[in-house]
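Re: that backbone. Tokens:
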């Protein structure tokens, strides 16, 4: 039995708040739906308007990106898996909640086994402190064998004309997707700043690997910081928006889309994480509002 008592298993939205900021989280996908500054009532998160994109901050699990033919193999069997996995379209249980924090959990079940033959807990904790929101992920292997997974974040932030993303350090990249599959073979430039305009995402997401930065800032046209985003040892970072959309996604990933020549074997997938029986994997990101 899990050590936490489940408070709720029915779809709802959770509001957490302190004196500076508030956040709303949906139990559907444990998706962050709102992040506001209390004093000004300024909304920093995309509204999920389906005219551009009907999501706001989905969790990507147990894969990040696209698999070849939306399939993979494991132990000689073939499984189907949608882009970015199933967690974002799964109902999470609330296992803990107070005024400024909430914890939600997804457990493997008969619903997940047909596409993902592993037993796991996926635990998401949202905690407000001062002007920051920390989102912490824990993957627990409750199986009797090694499990293989990727996990990523996909929060979308409101932007205005002339906004830009600034890296803490100069990074190699960006790399691009080819029909949804990653290509790390092309020689790339170095990047410190990305201006968001109608051409920025004409070839889909911008991808960076082997990151040196542990923080990026989203700035407006007057060089005023809108939000900063910190993350731990994230091997990949995606930056994406539909063309001419009024938001940008800043996406720390522990995993990556398939390459076009991937064999399909899950354990050999680029960027896959192997977690032994009984072990835990932890990662996090922090959004701060100046």
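Recovered sequence:
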């Amino acid at each position: 039995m899990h050590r936490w008592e489940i408070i709720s298993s029915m779809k709802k939205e959770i509001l957490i708040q302190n004196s500076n900021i508030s956040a709303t989280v949906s139990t559907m996908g444990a998706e962050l739906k709102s992040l506001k500054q209390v004093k000004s009532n300024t909304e920093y998160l995309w509204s999920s308007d389906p005219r551009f994109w009907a999501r706001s901050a989905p969790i990507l699990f147990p894969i990040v990106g696209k698999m070849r033919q939306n399939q993979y193999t494991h132990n000689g069997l073939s499984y189907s898996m949608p882009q970015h996995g199933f967690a974002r379209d799964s109902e999470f249980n609330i296992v803990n909640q107070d005024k400024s924090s909430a914890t939600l959990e997804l457990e493997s079940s008969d619903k997940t086994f047909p596409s993902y033959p592993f037993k796991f807990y996926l635990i998401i904790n949202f905690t407000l402190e001062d002007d920051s929101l920390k989102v912490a992920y824990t993957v627990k292997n409750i199986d009797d064998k090694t499990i293989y997974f990727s996990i990523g974040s996909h929060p979308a932030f409101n932007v205005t004309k002339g906004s830009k993303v600034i890296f803490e350090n100069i990074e190699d990249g960006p790399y691009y997707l080819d029909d949804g599959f990653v290509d790390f073979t092309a020689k790339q430039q170095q990047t410190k700043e990305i201006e968001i305009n109608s051409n920025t995402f004409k070839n889909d997401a911008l991808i960076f690997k082997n990151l040196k930065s542990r923080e990026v800032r989203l700035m407006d046209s007057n060089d005023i910081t809108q939000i900063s985003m910190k993350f731990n040892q994230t091997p990949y970072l995606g930056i994406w928006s539909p063309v001419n959309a009024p938001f940008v996604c800043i996406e720390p990933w522990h995993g990556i889309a398939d390459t076009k020549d991937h064999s399909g074997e899950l354990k050999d997938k680029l960027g896959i994480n192997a977690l032994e029986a009984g072990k835990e994997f932890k990662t996090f990101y922090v959004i701060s509002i100046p």
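The CA atoms of residues 194 and 236 lie 16 Å apart. The domain at 13-288 is CATH 2.70.98.10 (Beta-galactosidase; Chain A, domain 5).
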